[in-house]
Design a protein that fits this description.
about 675 residues; Immunoglobulin-like; 7-stranded beta/alpha barrel; 4 domains; disordered N terminus
């Protein structure tokens, strides 16, 4: 992390000796031998006439040889006056040598040992030049006057205060995929690692906490905040191949979650911080609309904002939106505008690059689809490239990123309305140490003017223009979507059945909305667990509605059977009772009855007419109502009707048949005429 160099502390350790000597021959680009590694520990954010260069490097000897007679050569090269020259200077001698200063070091560096070297160099020669510029630095470690390791870093030198700073929009996305089941048990320790000291999300929160007074934008993933608040209250985790364990509130990962949540709350409450909310579950919006789930976009957006407001204590912006994962196509853009979006924050690559590569890509583009348009804040593509190239040395990567911004500014240092955007996205490749180093560098740079996204859009002029081209994104599996739709229908019917409010319906609704999230594009198996949990919960409640075994006796052709229904759910239910039988039994007033079923035993009476005697089975079904053509069966059982009454028609037929047979039999007694 770059800070004012702790000169006294390093001197006490005996690791620093200062000697500004005469110029040495400039080192060659082939000085790196691979047996020794140099890593940047700290460096001045910028330098000037009264701000000498202060830099600390750590050397690690990976060879089997002891390195004696150590010295360091600090070379300042002529300015890099373009972004391309600057990028080359990070890996080769892009410009000629300007000055080289030797620093002799006592002692040795044994095999496997590491040692810290601090350098301080006044810059009077640069002051005399009277020019603000971006100077490539080369720090070379030598043993017996032979180069053994080289480190290249930029130096920003300002001869006078910046009159027109470079506006900078930087967006910090606090996001994590859904990594728990419907029971709340976490499925891995990935989020624990990210929240622990040294973890990526922990480092981002700490970096934001350390830039008090500096404007920035935070885009908060609702899935992340939902899991964060759950962890802070205590949680269970069952990692693959590991034992299920419980973490109590205040301990372990729960304590880490509380710390990060507290830092984010403090940061979000600052007036200079702009907070954005992801839609609930972090859905891929094109996948959501393609799946026919677009009508849920409004509820998802509202629920996500509510979650952020409750977790962080601030109301998120309703006009600035970050589409999760930067997934946006022309249709999605139209819907975003319809939801109130005026500014969208996107990843690089969605906007066509400028035709002339010598110019920077515009940081703000008026992006249109049909008749709708929004201002899109687009990050500069070069910064992550130079930072990633140095990712093995996170502090050096932070200075390389800062140098890229300086290269942009130095190309046209006095031009108003210029700006650059930086976005640390969901899949940011930067290690935790990068964020800890980069944030204070930006804060300490007077030639930068950090802004929140909305203010940045107002500040940049002119803006580019582009038409959003059609794009293809991974989609939700069709069979998975069908399952979500079935679950939503089942929940609707359950809500129609339940006559008094119950928190469980809200939990089930949240499960189904979460199942539309972006995590389940790649992990539909996990999403199905949420959908199945909805169905299982509803069935479990329905199972408390029962129909006791009953047998009814009809002593006459018609009568009334009292069907008993038992409701042990604890809720009043609005249901349909339906009887199903064969032709031997007729339901005089119909075979269904819609009733309010109180949480107790209830008798439902049906008028019936038996067409025959004997034991007649009846299937009794308790069903949902709702508007769907196929209701859900809440409970089902069979009751019996024993009919002991004769059927009149059958009786008449029987008597008639008997009389006929009797008459036929009686003919034998009648006299017959003789022939």
């Amino acid at each position: 992390m770059s800070r004012s160099w702790p000169w006294q502390a390093l001197a006490t350790l005996g690791t620093v000796a200062f000697l500004a000597g005469t110029a040495w021959p400039a080192p060659s680009a082939s000085a790196q031998t691979g047996v020794v590694r140099l890593a940047l520990e700290s460096q001045s954010a910028w330098n000037g006439p009264k701000r000498p260069l202060e830099i600390v490097v750590r050397a690690t000897n990976d060879s089997s040889e002891r390195l004696e007679q150590l010295s360091i050569a600090l070379t300042i090269r002529t300015p890099a006056r373009s972004r391309s020259a600057y990028e080359l200077s990070l890996r080769a001698d892009a410009t000629s040598s300007f000055f080289t200063y030797p620093f002799v070091r006592e002692g040795a560096l044994g095999p496997g040992e590491s040692r810290t070297f601090g350098l301080q160099q006044p810059l009077d020669l640069l002051t005399n030049r009277g020019e603000s510029a971006l100077y490539p630095l080369e720090i070379e470690l030598r043993s017996d006057d032979a180069p053994v390791a080289t480190l290249r870093s930029p130096m920003i030198f300002l001869i006078e205060p910046a009159k027109v700073p470079l506006s900078l929009a930087w967006t910090w996305i606090m996001a994590a995929p859904v990594d728990h089941g419907p029971d709340g048990v976490f499925l891995s320790d990935a989020l624990e690692s990210d929240l622990a000291p040294g973890g990526r999300l922990r480092a981002m929160a700490e970096a934001l906490a350390g830039i008090d007074g500096v404007p920035a934008t935070i885009a908060a993933s609702s899935a992340f905040l939902d899991q964060l608040t759950s962890m802070a209250d205590g949680y269970e985790v069952s990692p693959p191949g590991g034992e299920r364990r419980t973490v109590a509130a205040g301990g372990g990962g729960a304590a880490d979650a509380s710390v990060v949540l507290g830092m984010l709350r403090d940061v979000a409450e600052r007036p200079e911080i702009e907070t954005l909310a992801y839609p609930f579950g972090d859905p891929s919006l094109p996948a959501l609309f393609k799946a026919g789930l677009g009508k849920d976009f409004g509820p998802l957006l509202s629920r996500g904002r509510t979650l952020v407001r409750e977790a962080l204590g601030v109301s998120p912006s309703t006009t600035v939106i970050r589409p999760p994962f930067s997934h946006v196509d022309p249709g999605t853009l139209v819907r975003l505008v319809g939801s109130g979006a005026r500014t969208v924050l996107l990843d690089q690559g969605l906007v066509p690059p400028p035709l002339d590569p010598t110019f920077s890509a515009p940081a703000v583009v008026r992006l249109s689809s049909g008749t709708e348009a929004v201002s899109a804040v687009v990050p500069d593509p070069g910064l992550p490239l130079v930072a990633t190239a140095a990712s093995a040395d996170p502090r050096l990567a932070a200075h390389a990123a800062l140098g890229w911004l300086a290269a942009m500014w130095f190309e046209f240092p006095g031009t108003p309305g210029r700006g650059a955007a930086v976005l640390f996205g969901e899949g940011s490749p930067h290690p935790a140490e990068f964020f800890e180093a980069f944030a204070p560098l930006v804060r300490s740079s007077p030639w930068l003017r950090p802004l929140a996204a909305e203010a940045f859009v107002e500040d940049i002029d002119p803006q580019g223009r582009a038409v959003l081209s059609p794009r293809s994104y991974p989609a939700l599996d069709p069979s998975y979507v069908a399952g979500v739709q079935r679950g939503k229908g089942q929940l609707r019917r359950f809500e129609d059945t339940l006559q008094d409010p119950d928190p469980i319906t809200e939990r089930l609704r949240a499960h189904l909305l979460l199942a539309e999230g972006g995590t389940f594009v790649a992990r539909p198996d996990l999403g199905r667990r949420f959908v199945d949990a909805v169905s299982a919960t509803i069935r479990r409640i329905y199972s408390r509605v029962t129909i006791p075994s009953q047998t009814f006796t009809l002593t006459s052709r018609s009568g009334v059977i009292p069907v008993q229904v038992r409701n042990d759910t604890g809720h009043e239910l609005r249901v349909r009772v339906r009887l199903v039988s064969d032709r031997r039994l007729e339901f005089v007033d119909g075979d269904t009855a819609t009733i309010l079923l109180p949480p107790e035993d209830q008798i439902v009476r049906f008028a019936v007419s038996a067409r025959t005697t004997g034991l007649l089975p009846i299937k009794v079904q308790i069903q949902t109502l709702g508007g769907d053509p196929t209701p859900d069966t809440i409970s089902e059982a069979q009751v019996l009707v024993r009919s002991t009454a004769y059927n009149r028609v059958a009786l008449f037929v029987t008597i008639g048949a008997a009389l006929f047979l009797l008459a036929w039999w009686g003919r034998r007694f009648l006299p017959r005429q003789r022939p």
